[in-house]
């Protein structure tokens, strides 16, 4: 039996005949994909679904945009989060920041532990922390290791 997918608006799921799923990052009404709070929570919901989806053999995460994978965080939401954190009492700021930003790390970790191969097909830009999304599982590289100009993740 096929498990119903979670409601997704920032991503879409394309089932392949071979049991693979393409998780397509495609933020509506945006020229580039960004990790908004909605996208982060949808990624988490998909990861939880994937843990129970016995009929899925693997996942390819890719962009639905021709101009790149992801421009990074939603800067408007990041500004709101910053204001929320600095407005809080100093003793509470770490916990507030952690609670606000942890869902992305949790979603990525849940994808990693779903027991299925996950691949990121990235063409174009993958800026900011989203580069981490693509590089969590290193692939074998030729020796000597070629130089990389990806910058800090």
List key phrases describing it.
globular, 17% strand, alpha/beta, single chain, disordered C terminus, 153 residues
Short note summarizing the structure:
By secondary structure, the protein is of the alpha/beta class. It has helices at residues 37-52, 75-87, 93-112, 130-135, and strands at residues 11-15, 20-25, 58-63, 68-70, 118-121, 125-126.
Give your account of this protein's structure.
The chain is α/β, with parallel strands linked by helices. Helix 2 crosses helix 3. A 4-stranded mixed sheet has the order 1-2-3-5. A two-stranded parallel ribbon has the order 4-6. It starts with 10 loop residues before the first strand and ends in an 18-residue tail after the last helix. Helix 1 (37-52) links the parallel strand 2 (20-25) and strand 3 (58-63). It has 4 helices and 6 strands, in the order ββαββααββα. It has helices at 37-52, 75-87, 93-112, 130-135; strands at 11-15, 20-25, 58-63, 68-70, 118-121, 125-126. 36% of the residues lie in helices and 17% in strands.
Describe the secondary structure blueprint for this structure.
Layout (H helix, E strand, L loop, with lengths): L10 E5 L4 E6 L11 H16 L5 E6 L4 E3 L4 H13 L5 H20 L5 E4 L3 E2 L3 H6 L18
Parallel strand pairs: 2-3, 3-5, 4-6
Antiparallel strand pairs: 1-2
Helix pairs in contact: 1-3, 2-3
